[in-house]
Write a structure and sequence with these properties.
This protein is of the alpha/beta class and about 500 residues long. The chain has two domains: about 1-255 and about 475-490, Glycogen Phosphorylase B (Rossmann fold); about 280-470, Glycogen Phosphorylase B (Rossmann fold), CATH 3.40.50. The protein is about 35% helix and about 20% strand. The protein contains 17 helices and 17 strands. The chain has helices at about 20-30, 110-125, 140-150, 175-180, 185-190, 205-215, 225-230, 240-245, 280-290, 315-325, 340-350, 365-375, 390-400, 410-415, 440-455, 455-470, 475-490; strands at about 1-5, 35-40, 50-65, 70-80, 85-90, 130-135, 160-165, 175, 205, 215-220, 250, 300-305, 330-335, 360-365, 380, 400-405, 430-435. The strands form three sheets. It has a nine-stranded mixed sheet with strand order 3-4-5-2-1-6-7-10-11, sandwiched between helices. The protein has a six-stranded parallel sheet with strand order 14-13-12-15-16-17, sandwiched between helices. A hairpin with a 2-residue loop joins β4 and β5 (about 85-90). The protein is globular, with a radius of gyration of 23 Å.
């Protein structure tokens, strides 16, 4: 099967969050299964070019319709850790992808609208005719719209589109200008409830909604989140659209790349270990303490890795720090916030706790340190308000670090409470709480800390349960192939 991934991120060359990991990991799994996979990305100036092998211009004269004119683009090709990637570089005075960051500009709708048109124009001009086009999030939501409304009429009738929703909070709500820019035109046609009209702002277009309406199949990144997007406020206004299209909608849990996240082979940790040599994990704990200037004492290390924002339960993260310190634990945090006020708050908190030998806050992101924290921690909190999938808890379990998570989204699909889960004992792998408040978090932390101190044998069994879990791309890869085959046969 010939599959083209079209996305705004692909780890490690262009990564902001989990989207980049998914595009790379799923593409790799599909290739392992014998499929031909190509990835199309914007050519950002801030990419990690050191992760691209053999980058060279492969298509020098691509002209893309834009407004009532044509824009000249170059297309580059290179291998990203074995993945075949094309990078589109428009020669525009606006410098759409030469701004030092991936997202966060007022014209993001234009930038990625152009990318969608350019990606399809490149596929059409170069004769690429994949079986499946798999696009991701609002940035590529116009792909199925443009394919159906323009490129099928030009003879590109073969590809079927799978569209994956990673984060419904960001939907690409924009004005009608995007229609004239991309050549779709006809605002009276597209500004309709059955097409791209936003469900609440009747004068706005919703690009993500368009992707849902026009795709052959729509997925989100866990079964629980698929249910939440149709039946709770986590639909962020798209619940009715998903209900209308429920027959082509489902949840497929993300995987993680065990070539990257594996304590048996991890080059970033000082002592490799596995389920049969679990004592070696504590060598990493000692190095983590030395790195973070924590005291050497018989205490569990509880950690947090990730963004510091309201989706991630930032007030609960703060509460967890002080609860841990008050209950005989140490705490390590690695993260930053896109919100300057929140970032300043955690810098102030770091300064306040700077002399505490049981706490270390690292404001920012450091890939190598993240590996050490996963390997050296005893527990990890993920107290999210909503979490479509979550990779943190799955990575933590691979390293024998017990996740403490809220009962939401992909966290519910992967973590099963040590005390209350309707699972056999050997399948229980962490602690889960429901209420999005201090008391809910405390209920899970209290039980986890209690088990660590009072029943170390059972805590160790919980660690081995977690390490036995298989959250690789093996099963999700097969699920996606089933979806692809289903929409090809329709």
């Amino acid at each position: 099967m010939f599959i083209t991934m079209i996305a705004s991120e692909c780890a490690p060359v262009a990564k902001v969050g989990g989207l980049g990991d998914v595009v790379f990991g799923l593409s790799r799994e599909l290739e392992i299964r014998g499929n031909d996979v190509e990835i199309i990305l914007p050519k950002y100036d801030c990419m990690r070019y050191d992760h691209i092998y053999g980058l060279q211009e492969t298509y020098s004269d691509l002209w893309v319709p834009w407004f009532d004119d044509m824009v000249h683009c170059s297309v580059f090709f290179g291998f990203v850790h074995g993945r075949k990637c094309f990078f589109i570089d428009p020669h525009l005075p606006q410098q759409y992808f030469n701004r030092g960051i991936y997202y966060g500009h007022k014209d993001d709708d234009e930038r990625f609208g152009f990318f969608c048109r350019a990606a399809l124009e490149f596929m059409w001009k170069s004769g690429k005719n994949p079986d499946i086009i798999h696009c991701h999030d609002w940035q590529t939501a116009l792909i199925p719209v443009l394919l159906y409304e323009i490129y099928q009429n030009m003879g590109m009738t073969h590809p079927r589109v799978c569209y994956t929703l990673h984060n419904l909070k960001h939907q690409g709500v924009t004005g009608g200008h995007i229609l004239s820019e991309t050549g779709l035109n006809r605002p009276e046609y597209y500004l309709h409830y059955d097409r791209l009209q936003d469900n609440f702002n009747l004068h706005a277009l919703n690009l993500m909604k368009g992707g849902i309406v026009y795709s052959n199949f729509v997925t989100t990144v866990s079964p629980k989140h698929a249910w939440e997007t149709r039946h709770t406020e986590q639909d962020f206004g798209l619940g009715h659209t998903l209900e209308i299209h429920h027959q082509k909608f489902g949840g497929i849990l993300n995987g993680i790349d065990y070539d990257v996240w594996n304590p048996e082979t991890d080059p970033h940790i000082p002592q490799k270990f596995d389920i049969n040599h679990l004592d070696k994990k504590y060598d990493n704990k000692k190095v983590l303490r030395n790195h973070c200037l924590l005291r050497e004492e018989f205490k569990p290390i509880i950690s947090y890795i990730g963004r510091l924002d309201h989706q991630k339960g930032v007030h609960l993260i703060k509460h967890a720090i002080f609860y841990a310190l008050a209950h005989g634990c140490q705490f390590v945090l690695l993260g930053s916030s896109p919100d300057s006020e929140l970032n300043d708050y955690f810098w102030n908190l770091k300064n306040h706790l700077n002399n505490n030998e049981d706490c270390h806050l690292e404001i920012g992101y450091n890939e190598e340190l993240a590996h050490l924290i996963y390997a050296g921690s005893d527990m990890m909190i993920v107290p999210s308000l909503f979490e479509p999938c979550g990779l943190t808890q799955m990575i933590a379990m691979k390293y024998g670090t017990i996740p403490i998570v809220r009962d939401v989204g992909g966290l519910s699909d992967t973590v099963f409470d040590a005390d209350h889960a309707h699972k056999p004992y050997e399948e229980r792998n962490g602690y889960v709480f429901s209420d999005f408040n201090d008391q809910g978090l405390e209920s899970a932390m209290y039980r986890a800390i209690g088990l660590y101190y009072s029943y170390p044998k059972f805590f160790r069994e919980l660690m081995t349960n977690a390490m036995r879990c298989d959250y690789s791309w093996n099963l999700p890869g097969q699920h996606y192939l089933n979806v692809y085959e289903h929409i090809i046969e329709k």
